[in-house]
Amino acid sequence: MKSNRYSRFFQIAHTFLYYRLYDLVPESHRTWYMALTHTLLFWYPKVSKQNSKAVNLRLALESLGPVWIKFGQMLSTRKDLLSESLSIELTKLQDQVPPFSSQVAIERIKQELNLSAIEDLFFEFDPTPIASASIAQVHSAKLQRENGDHQEVVIKVIRPGIEKQINADVALMMVMAQILNRVLAEAHRLRPVEVVEEYKKTIVAELNLVQEAANGIQLRRNFEQSDDLYIPQIFSEHCSKRVLVMERIYGIPVSDIAQLNAQGSDLKKLAERGVRVFFTQVFRDSFFHADMHPGNIFISRENPTDPKYIGIDFGIIGTLNSEDKRYLAENFVAFFNRDYLKVAELHVQSGWVPSHINVEQFEMAIRTVCEPIFNKPLADISFAQVLIGLFDTARQFEMQVQPQLVLLQKTLLYVEGLGRQLYPQLDLWETAKPFLEDWVNDQMGVKALFRTTKQNLPYWIEKAPQVPELFYGSLQSISRLPLMKKELIADYQILQQKQQRFFKRLTVFSISAIGVLLITLFADVSNDINWFAADVLLAALALLNAWKLRN
Any catalytic annotation for residue 306? Predict the structure, then answer.
C-alpha cells in the first residue's frame, strides 16, 4: 500500500515538473529552496514554454486522472481563489473517461440488487454505456413492472476500485495542501486545506448512490406540481450504495443553444425560470441542487414556448438553516438597495463575522468593493461576482469559511452562467429582486406571525396545563432567592476558611521540607546527635502536613 502511495507521489512530482506548474507560484512567494530545487532540475524534460500557465495546469490535471479532473472542475467555480484565465481554462476539463467492462457492470448490478440474472429485473439491458464519467457509468435498460409494463430507465453504476483511488488521491492532496499552508504566504487567503476538505466531502457524497436517490426523491417532491423543473422518478427499491435506477428522460442539453433555437424555445423565459428555480430551492425549500453544471441540466422537448428544465445527478445537495436563509435574503435585498451598513450589520448579527469587528470599517470596505461594480448597467453586473467580492471582503474581517455559502456561491455561478448563455441580456437583479423582497416580507410580516402562531398553537395547547405548575415553581424559586443567597455566602465563607488552612499547611510543609534538607547536610558534616533529632522532628512535621494536605 505504501509503495503505491509513494509511486503516486512521484507521478504527481513528475507532472508538477513536466507541466512547469512551478511557474504558477508568483515570484514574490517563491522560497529559496523552491528556487534552488527548480534550478538544479533544469535538465528535467518539460512541455513547451509556448503553453500558457492555465493550459499547463489543465493538461496536468487531465494527465493525473478522474479524481484530479473533478478537483479542477470544482476549482473552476472558485473565482474568488483563481485568476480569470485559470478559471476559464479549468472549465474546459472534460469528465469523460473510457468505460469499464459491461460484464463488470452487469456483475455489480446483480450483486448489489441480489439478482441471479440481469433478466430477473430488466426486460432489456444495453451493454454499451450511454455515458462514462470518473465516478460512474450509465447504462440504459427497461425495468419490468409488477403490472407487466416495461419502464425505460437508466442504471448508474459506481466504477470499480474508484473508492480506493479517491481515498489515496485525496490523502495526497491533503498532504500537499498542508505543505502549501506552511510555505505559501497567501495560504490564509487561498485556504488550501479547507479547499481539499470541501472537495473530499463533495466527492465522498457522490460515491453513495443511496444518498443520491434520497436527494432526488426529495427534489421531485418539492417540484411535483411545478411548471419550471422536472425531476425524473427514482426507483428506490432498486437502488443501493453502488447502483441507482432512475426513469430515463429525453431532453436537449441546456448548452445546445442551436438545437433549442431550432425547436423554437423561448430562451428569455427559460433563463428567467432558471433563476426562479434556484431561488425557490434555496429560500422556499432550503434544499438546493448544488451541481447544476450544463451536463446535469436538460430542457424538455415538449411545449418549447413554455419550456421546462429537467435535472439529474443529485449527489451534491446544499441546505441552509432558517437563520442563514433569512440573513442571506436580507443581505441580497440590502445589496439591491446599496445599503452597505445593513449588509455589514447583518454579517455581524448572523455570527459570520465576529462581534468585535468595527462595523463602520467593514461597511467602508464593502462600499469600496461594490460601488465600482454598481456604476455599470445592471444587466452587465454579475450577481455571482458581487457575492464573491462580498465574501472575499468579509474574510479580511475574520469571516470564517461557511461551507453552505461556498456551495451556494458555486451554484449561483452555474445558474448565472447558464442564464446568460441562454439569454445574454438576462438581468439577474431584476429577476431576483421581486422574488427576494416578497420572500422577506412573507417571512417577517403579519402573515409570518399568523403562520408561526398557527403552526405552534397545537404545541402551546398541549403544554397549557403545565403552565400554572411551572409558574408556581418559578415563584417558589424567586421566593427562595434570599435564602439561597445566604446559603451561598455561608458556603463561600467555609471555602475561604478551608483555603486559608490549606495555604498555612502548605507553608509549614514547604518550610519543614526545606529544613529537613538543610539539617541533613549539617548532620552529615558535624555527626552531632542533636542535629539528627531535629531532622527527624522536622521530617515528621513535613509528613504530617503532607498527609493533611492530601486529605
Answer: no
